[in-house]
Amino acid sequence: MSTIKLGNMANSEREQTADWFRRFAKAEGAESPRYFDWAEGIMHDEELLDLIGKLPRAKRQPVLVLTCARVAGVPLRPFNAIRGEWIERWPDIEQLARTRATQTNDPRRCTPLLVALNRIRGPISLIEAGASAGLTLFPDRYSYRWTAPGRVIESHPTDGPSAVRLTAEIAGWGASPPRRPHIVYREGIDLNPLDVGDLADRQWLEALIWPEQQERLELVRAAADTVAENPPRMTVGDAVAQIRGAVARARKAVPSGTVVIWSPAVLVYLDPSEREKFANYCLRSKVRWVSLDGRDVIPRLKDAADAAGVIGDFILSLDGSAIASVDPLGRRVSVRDSSGLTPEEIDLIEFERDNWGSTRSKESLVRKVWALSLVRYYQRLYAIMESPAARRYDSVLVRSFADANAPSMQ
User: Fold this and answer.
1) Residue 110 and residue 137: Cα distance in Å, rounded?
2) Distances (CA, A) of 86 to 37, 47, 97, 138, 292
3) Which CATH architecture has domain 107-335?
4) Which listed site, 141, 151, 175, 398, has its alpha carbon 20 to 30 Å from 278?
């Protein structure tokens, strides 16, 4: 009887692991043909499934296992051609899986961070929960090129363009480029912080980027070089346990600084009760809290997003108030303005600001950017400009528009 039970247990573990890799291949694996192929091969390979099943459950994550295989030297070739390499190198893969962890450290998340910091007065003492290698502790050192309908918004460090150039699509942004934050203190908290000056940590950081993402790899390398020039303080430990100490250190280092706690997509890894502890501390202490989280991670943030009319699966919030819907890697941001205008309405106003009056090319430009006839474009613009929300947004612009178009608006 015991032999049968053990066999059933083994089969159950194998099936669960296979299902994990099957779901990965169907979802995340779509972004990487090589990882898709490897995941599909593994989910049908009983020997590999049994080996993976001997790892602690948290260490069986497909991304972690696949990354460990790359670092252990498994060639980036079709699974059928290198299946033997997996078996031969399994001891190294297993050791890496037991000692390493997956860590998303994408500098592109500095775009939503910069959107939030634009609303905070400095100087700023920036503390990041789940900082990994600290690449998003340096939003002031990077260059930004944001595209909005019919216009481009650029921002560079005071000493000139950075080697780290972050691009994103942004909706609902105003006329001015974002202010460069004055950051006077930086500290990261992580269970397994990475040191960009350490060759093994640097190798792991780069291996976490999926095989086909060469542009992202170059971006991470450039950001790591920037961090290496002036490394932040990195604290080992759990964010909930370490946050008070980090805030105390920041206040001691720069008493005049505004302490900003930055938690980019990290709270989902905490138990719900721990998430609430972290949120309660951030909201009740004299700090500013910038959060980038899934909509359902913290119920109060979901409620705030619903109340503000911010849609999307990932929310950028400031002090518990939703201010934008975002792509989790910072590639797209839709900002919600306090005036009450929608992001699209703001984009229409700012497009008109940049293309004021009538020109011979305006009709073709309007059609290209907005897919509207010129008549329909002005009808929409007039309706927006006559609203109280538009006056709250920019009363001077509204008056100028009304004066310039008085006959046609009557």
Assistant:
1) 8
2) 14, 10, 14, 38, 36
3) 3-Layer(aba) Sandwich (3.40)
4) 141
387: its two tokens: 């609203």
Report percent pLDDT > 90 for the chain: 79
- Output the DSSP codes for 340-383: S--HHHHHHHHHHHHT-S--TTHHHHHHHHH---HHHHHHHHHH
As a whole number of angstroms, the distance between CA 313 and CA 168 comes to: 17
Q: Who contacts 101 (Cβ-Cβ below 8 Å, separation ≥6)?
A: 64, 191, 192
Tokens coding 104: 């998303």
Cross-strand pairs, 234: 188
d(CA 11, CA 17): 10
The pLDDT value recorded for residue 10 is: 55
Q: For the chain, what are the domain ranges? A: 2-99, 107-335, 343-409
> β-strands 258-264, 124-129: how paired?
parallel
- pLDDT confidence band for 361 (50 / 70 / 90): confident
How far apart are the C-alpha atoms of 276 and 273, rounded to whole Å?
A: 5
State pTM to two decimals.
0.88
Q: State the Cα–Cα distance between residues 139 and 170, nearest whole angstrom.
A: 17
pLDDT digits (tens, 9 = 90+) for 167-206: 999 999 999 999 999 999 999 999 989 999 999 999 999 9
Q: Are 117 and 109 in contact (CB under 8 A)?
A: no
